[in-house]
């Protein structure tokens, strides 16, 4: 039995995510921890993303090379889905195994509340999508994984996202070929990773429009491609725009600067105006300190 069963019926959050696409393109923001997910929801964004890169670095302090155990991914999925009502999209890397394993894993993540589950076509010894040295599995093997993912979900409303990393390995031609193959295999959304120019986003978007498939564009910072606006990506044919590690990068830079000032000045007074106040934190937590214990630690 799954220890992280969501109280929502299977597929309900996936249905909500599909409905959100009526207002394209939607913005999907990565949450490095549940409190950030609450703020994403409070600010009115359409969905929360559980990024493998942010999870690896933020939770365990390790690089994004496929070291997060599946049980930890499942646990963090449940933590996010219990903290927000908006859909949570889960980065499941290569799916944690072969087609048989993927069918089971999709079911478990869906039970934990995932609205959408993303799998990619890298080999099991994966790397960050914007680094050199990646390797991809054959198209036929990935299409088997997509079939298995679709079979594993308990509701047709749960969204299966297929990511291809082939552009950073071979060519844009191969990328376009895989987009079509993954769409034909049943993937609901297609995620072409590490495109290198606006022209390449345009090529991919034209094909996605032709296929009537939902395209996901990754606007991760300091990567291989340009940072295009949501509006531009919408005109190019992408229905969703992803910012997977933006909040983690912002938070870590603020921590770095804050520690430098604290070390130099011996006080935090000069940057109090940059902090979330106690009242703002309590409001985000839906906590009334007048009711029950008030912990000042």
Quickly describe the structure:
This protein is of the alpha/beta class. Helices cover 43% and strands 12% of the residues.
Shape: globular
Estimate percent helicity: 40-55%
CATH architecture of the largest domain: Alpha-Beta Barrel
| Beta-strand share of residues | 5-15%
Note down, in words, how this protein is organized:
The protein is of the alpha/beta class and 297 residues long. It has two domains: 12-244, TIM Barrel (Alpha-Beta Barrel); 252-284, no CATH class. The protein contains eleven helices and eight strands. Strands 1-2-3-4-5-6-7-8 form an eight-stranded parallel beta barrel, surrounded by ten helices. Helix 5 runs parallel beside helix 6 and helix 7 packs parallel to helix 8 (198-211). The protein is globular and about 60 Å long. It starts with 11 loop residues before the first helix and ends in a 13-residue tail after the last helix.
Main features:
single chain; 2 domains; TIM Barrel; 297 residues; globular; 11 helices; 12% strand; alpha/beta
Record the SSE blueprint.
Elements: H1 12-20, E1 26-30, H2 34-42, E2 47-50, H3 52-60, H4 70-83, E3 88-91, H5 99-111, E4 116-120, H6 139-152, E5 159-164, H7 172-184, E6 189-192, H8 198-211, E7 214-218, H9 230-236, E8 240-243, H10 246-265, H11 278-284
Parallel strand pairs: 1-2, 1-8, 2-3, 3-4, 4-5, 5-6, 6-7, 7-8
């Amino acid at each position: 039995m799954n220890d992280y069963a969501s109280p929502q019926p299977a597929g309900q959050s996936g249905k909500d995510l599909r409905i959100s696409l009526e207002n394209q393109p939607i913005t999907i923001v990565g949450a490095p921890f549940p409190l950030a997910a609450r703020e994403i929801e409070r600010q009115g964004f359409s969905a929360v993303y559980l990024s493998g890169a942010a999870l690896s670095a933020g939770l365990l302090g390790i690089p994004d090379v496929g070291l997060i155990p599946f049980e930890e991914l499942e646990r963090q999925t449940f933590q996010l889905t219990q903290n927000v009502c908006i859909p949570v999209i889960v980065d499941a890397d290569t799916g944690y195994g072969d087609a048989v394993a993927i069918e089971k894993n999709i079911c478990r993540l869906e039970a934990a509340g995932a609205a959408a589950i993303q799998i990619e076509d890298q080999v099991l010894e994966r790397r960050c999508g914007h680094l050199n040295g990646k390797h991809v599995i054959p198209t036929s093997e990935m299409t088997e994984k997509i079939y298995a993912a679709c079979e594993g979900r308990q509701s047709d409303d749960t969204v299966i996202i297929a990511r291809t990393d082939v552009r950073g390995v071979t060519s844009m031609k191969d990328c376009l070929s895989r987009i079509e193959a993954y769409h034909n295999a049943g993937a609901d959304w297609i995620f072409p990773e590490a495109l290198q120019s606006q022209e390449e986003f345009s090529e991919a978007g034209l094909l996605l429009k032709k296929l009537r498939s939902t395209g996901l564009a990754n606007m991760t910072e300091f990567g291989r491609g340009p940072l295009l606006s949501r509006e531009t990506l919408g005109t190019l044919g992408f229905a969703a725009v992803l910012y997977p590690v933006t909040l983690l990068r912002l938070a870590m830079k603020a921590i770095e600067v804050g520690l430098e000032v604290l070390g130099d000045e011996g006080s935090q007074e000069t940057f109090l105006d940059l902090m979330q106040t106690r009242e703002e934190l309590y409001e985000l937590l839906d906590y009334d300190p007048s009711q029950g214990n008030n912990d000042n630690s």
